[in-house]
Every structure is written in structure tokens, then in C-alpha cells.
Amino acid sequence: MVMRIVDLRSDTVTKPTEAMRAAMASADVDDDVLGSDPTAHRFESEMARVMGKEAALFVPSGTMGNLISVLVHCEVRGSEVILGDNSHIHVYENGGISTIGGVHPRTVKNNPDGTMDLDQIEAAIRHPEGALYYPTTRLICLENTHANCGGRCISSEYTDRVGEIAKKHGLKLHIDGARIFNASVALGVPVHRLVQAADSVSVCMSKGLGAPIGSVIVGSSEFITKARRLRKTLGGGMRQVGVLCAAAYVALRDNVGKLEDDHKKAKLFADGLKQIKELTVDTSSVETNMVFLDIVESSHISPERLCQVLEEHGVLAMPASSTSVRLVVHHQILESDIRYVLACMKQAVQELSTDGITK
Length: 359
What we know:
alpha/beta; 16% strand; EC 4.1.2.48; lyase
């Protein structure tokens, strides 16, 4: 029987801390749909302040936060949003902007660092003279950090340039900032500066920050007023939501300072994995808390089988592609866990190589 579990599937798997549980138990609550929950008000006000925006709104998930944001900016059905071809909104959010909002995605290729070429963004904007034939461009979306690109950070300078393009053409800019605090810590740039050019931002509290549930969207007061109505439409209005906001407030207060350590552990992890035969890791791409390992082309090991063998040792991981595995570090992973996983990984690779298992 496996006694030790090291869960690296995502930073969403963390358990609430004792401080979070205590805050949830003692939270001062009321009906938030009626606008009366004091703990929700306190948390949303603090998030707006930290992010440098006028107002904020707590939502059940990052997917809902992104969906609401896109729909506020694209109120007319048939609107078009420009976003990365490998972005979370485009790949992992069930096509909600199209199926629910009638918003058309126009993708631009994501570079390995998560950016999109500025000239390609501008070229993707529909010309008003083609309105009879084409959707109307109304929004640009960025993702920071960019998960599918390995948790890479998007600089404030790049974001500013995209913001300038948006303003030039009368468009809005939304940032999927699920892990924006990871980017802030890694870049050494205040989070409000990273999102200064954005009209709206979604922030996940249950990823790197370790809260059990919820995301926050921030923007202007007018934007949040519209977002609140859409949250109700989508079934996201919750009553005594202060119970959840209390845990999110603790996450914001206690766990931002732990992100730097998570990033150091990810780099330690990447360096160790690079020493294992049959595996390769681009250590220069490990900027935050994600590590993507690639299995060498000549190997007979598949990501699925590697993850199965690791699970037998209590190590949980997820295949990222037909040749790679994603590993995500969070504040409840210790350095001793990293050493244990490296030992298990080496043993698993040796076992699978010896068995000659094919992909």
C-alpha cells in the first residue's frame, strides 16, 4: 500500500489551510445576491485595490470569470475576440464564448513564451469596411502566466503594447490572469502594473494561491455592474458566499509570499529531471511553478504509462501531450517531496526502459 502521496497534477489540488478553515468557520455572512455579505465586500474591495481597478466580483470559477468578461465586452452576438491558439479560453473552456455568448474566436499563433506577434494581432483585427461579411472585432485576450506554454510570464511592456493596439482600434483588452500573482513574483513587478493596460482581468484564487474555491474578476465599476448581472444569469450568484471569500482572503494575505519558494522548487525539480536518461527539460523555460518534461524521441516510454507507474509510488502527474508530462508545484509540496519524486521518476524510467514498453 502506498503511504506517501505527492500530487503534482495541478496547483488546484491543495487542501485549505487551518487558517482558511478557521476564517470560513467564523466568517460574517449575509445574502450576497442581495448585495449584503460583508466578507464578500471586504474581499472584493481588497482585490480591486491590489489589482489597481475600480471594482471586483467573486465568481465560482476561472472559466466563469473569463466567460463573463468576454460577454461583457462583446455584448452583441457575432462579435469576435482575438486570442492565442493555445490559450486556456480557446482550448479548455468548452467553447463557452461561442456556445453561450455567440462570440467568434479568431486565433493568433502563440509563441513558445506565450506571447502573440504584435503585427499578427493587428492584422487579425477586422476592417470596418468588411462588416457586411465578417464578425466585428471587439476584444483581445492575453493569458498570464501562459499555462500551455509552460507557465511563462508576459511582461508589462508587452501587455502595454497590446493595450495600445486595442485602444488604437477601439477594442477592449482582457487578461486571463489565473496565475497572475505567479507572474508578478517571478518578474518582480507589482501585479497592478502587469494589468495596468487591461480593461478586465480574471484571477484564480484556487490555483497558486491555494484557496479551495473561486476566482475574481476586476475592472471598472461599470464593467463589474454588468458582470454581476451576467453572473446571476449563468447561475453563479451565491448567497452566504462570505464563507468562500474568507478563505480566498486568507490565500491572498498568506500565500502570495510563498510563490517565490514554489518557483525555486520547480527549478530544482527541472534540474533534477534533466539528469534522468530518456527525459529532457528546457530549464530556461521554467519561470514559475510548472515543469514540462519531454520524453526523448528514441524512447519506448509513453507519458500515459509513465504516469501510471509513478502513481504506483504515490506520485500523481498528468500527460500533457503524446510526448510530454506536466508537473505543477504548489505551496504544499516540500523539497523532500521533490527529492522523493525524482527518485521515483528515475526508478520508473529505468523500469519502463527495461520492460521495453512501446508508446
